[in-house]
Design a protein that fits this description.
Helix content is 29%, strand content 18%. It is of the alpha+beta class. Strands 1-2-3-5-4 form a 5-stranded antiparallel β-sheet, with helices on one face. Strand 1 and strand 2 form a beta hairpin. The longest helix is centred in the middle third of the chain and has 20 residues. It binds zinc ion. The site of zinc ion has 5 residues, from helix 1.
């Protein structure tokens, strides 16, 4: 039996309700949905983090995500908007260490939302924005070419 929950689902060792599957990914119903129609889109291959996805798989995966989000909107399930949520790392709320995307139908007053820290109200200075942009640009330049 697979120790990874999603690999176990992909192997048919755990039950799931499948919405779509292809060579790259599988979409299943989240068993604890934020709202009805909440999907999980999971890579067929076991990758842990966002950065681990090869470009070709990444591109096909997000194209599929776009289509599934559109299908939710057209499905008749209550949906006035969609959140596509990628939790990359435990601190970001990733609960299963197998790359996946949450596709969540949203509607006014569904009582779901993001919680901001108190410092969110204090806007950073332009210098602070420039400094952080500098660090990220440096890191970007030092990444291996795709
Ligand atoms: Zn896995």
């Amino acid at each position: 039996v697979n120790s990874c929950t999603f690999c176990a689902i992909l192997a048919g060792e755990l039950p799931s309700t499948i919405v779509h599957q292809d060579q790259v990914c599988i979409a299943i119903m989240d068993i604890q949905p934020v709202n009805p129609g909440h999907l999980l889109l999971i890579t067929r291959e076991h990758f842990t983090g966002f950065k681990d996805l090869p470009p070709e798989i990444c591109s096909q995966f997000f194209t599929r995500a776009q289509k599934l989000a559109d299908a939710i909107r057209q499905s008749g399930i209550q949906c006035e908007g969609i959140n596509v949520l990628l939790a990359d790392g435990t601190a970001a709320g990733q609960q299963v260490p197998h790359f996946h995307l949450h596709i969540i139908p949203r509607f006014q007053e569904d009582s779901f939302g993001f919680q901001f820290s108190p410092r969110y109200a204090e806007l950073p200075t332009r210098d602070e924005l420039e400094n952080n942009a500098y660090y990220i640009r440096q890191a970007l330049e030092n990444l291996p070419a795709a």
